[in-house]
Amino acid sequence: MNWFTMLFGIAAAGVAGYVLEPSFRERLTGEKPSSSIKIVQETAEGESLPDIDLGNIRPEQLPDKVLVNVAVELIDPADSTSTMQIAAGGRAKGLRIEGTNLIVGKGTFEGKIAIRNTDLIQQLALNPPKPAVPEPVPAPVPE
Question: What is the model's pTM?
Fold first, then answer.
C-alpha cells in the first residue's frame, strides 16, 4: 500500500506540473509561453521567415557570428587595396545593418552582404533580441 501511495503522488505531481506549468512560468519568470511566429517573408529558396523589424536592431543585438550563404569580399577600411574573401558557408561577425544589407567583418576587414544571403533572420527568430531599454532622463539640477 505504501508503494502505491508514493507512485500515485508522483503521478499526480507530474500531471499537475504539466497542466499548471504555463500559468506558473509567467508568474515566476515574467515570460509568457512562446506564441506562434507570424510568417511574412520568403527567401529565394521559398523558406518562410518570421516578421522581424530589422530597422530597430542595434549592432549590439546582432548575433556574434552569422553564416554567409554566398562568397563575400571584405575590404580593410584603412587600406582599400587589402581584401579578404569569406567563402560560402563561412562565418563572419555581424557589425551593423544598412537597409537590406548586413555589414560583416573579420578583424579590421568589412564587407556588405544581402541579409537574405545569411542566416541572420533565422538566428533572430530563434533568439529574439531584447527590446531597447530607454535611458532615463536626468532630473534638472536646481540652481
Answer: 0.56
